[in-house]
């Protein structure tokens, strides 16, 4: 893991004092490996008020600009999920840095408000629509346990999850702990259906032969 991190951190090895290195302060691997960064460093965090931009207890994004100031109510975002709050915070810092280098003065609040117009990308926690009081979300890009974890923890309890397809050799038993308090039912599809039936035998689940059948389940 350290070798992998070292390789990724090489992106910053030629930075100068004119550049800005923006990172997730909640990631301990990065936070503990900043010693060779030779430029301005800014951070974002879901929990640490010492970060340059962070999430408050009442789900507001606040930024350090002389003194802390709330600049965005995350409830106004069209995208949802804590990972997307992280993305928004990182984007605000990136845009601010780029504008500063270009000599353009725009307040962080104006930058943040622009984020409320973004509707997200296809297949990434994408709101498909509602039918019979059910909200359908397309998160088919969630092909790892970590991605499924983030998606589930971005939603309220009572989820029906369509799960399956081709596996990648991960330890999918880890999903049981992640899903136990949030998922009320599972619809299993694809070539992993049989193996997932064994993994999730303690959950309420039904098999489906196609995506169309899974949606109607």
Largest sheet: 5 strands, mixed
| Helix-residue proportion | 25-40%
Number of helices: 8
Rounded mean pLDDT score: 93
Structure report:
With 217 residues, this protein is an alpha/beta fold. The chain has helices at 2-9, 28-31, 82-101, 108-115, 145-152, 174-179, 193-199, 211-216, and strands spanning 20-24, 40-45, 53-55, 60-65, 67-73, 126-131, 134-138, 159-164, 183-189, 205-207. The protein is built from 8 helices and 10 strands. Helix 3 (82-101) packs across helix 4 (108-115). The longest helix is centred in the middle third of the chain and has 20 residues, at 82-101. 20% of the residues are buried.
Task: Give the arrangement of secondary structure elements.
Layout: H1 2-9, E1 20-24, H2 28-31, E2 40-45, E3 53-55, E4 60-65, E5 67-73, H3 82-101, H4 108-115, E6 126-131, E7 134-138, H5 145-152, E8 159-164, H6 174-179, E9 183-189, H7 193-199, E10 205-207, H8 211-216
Parallel strand pairs: 1-2, 2-3, 8-9, 9-10
Antiparallel strand pairs: 3-4, 4-5, 6-7
Helix pairs in contact: 3-4
Task: Identify the notable features of this structure and list them briefly.
single chain; three-stranded parallel β-sheet; 217 residues
